[in-house]
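Batch job 17 of 40 flagged for manual review because the log was empty.
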Amino acid sequence: MGTSYLLLCMGLAMSIKQATALTLKQLRNEVGLSQEQLARKSGIDRTYISGVERSVRNITLDSLEGLIDALGVTSEEFIRRLHIELIKQGS
């Protein structure tokens, strides 16, 4: 694999990470939950949620599922919103 391919993949991974962070934060704000409230509702530590929302922590799929459930949205809705965010980043 060439260097340009690896850089492209790294850029895509960063975009997905940032889009996930923004999507989670937007949904949390829309439902009117603080990070602390979301932490209690999901059983996930507030500092972890904060790190994910700031794109400094990598979220696991299990944790993502827990947050999506606690936010009261379906996985399909989260993916739809994530897709919109990725398109915005690509513009």
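Reviewer: the log was empty due to a logging misconfiguration, but the result itself is present. Confidence is low (pLDDT under 50) at residues 3-8. Unflagging and moving on to job 18.
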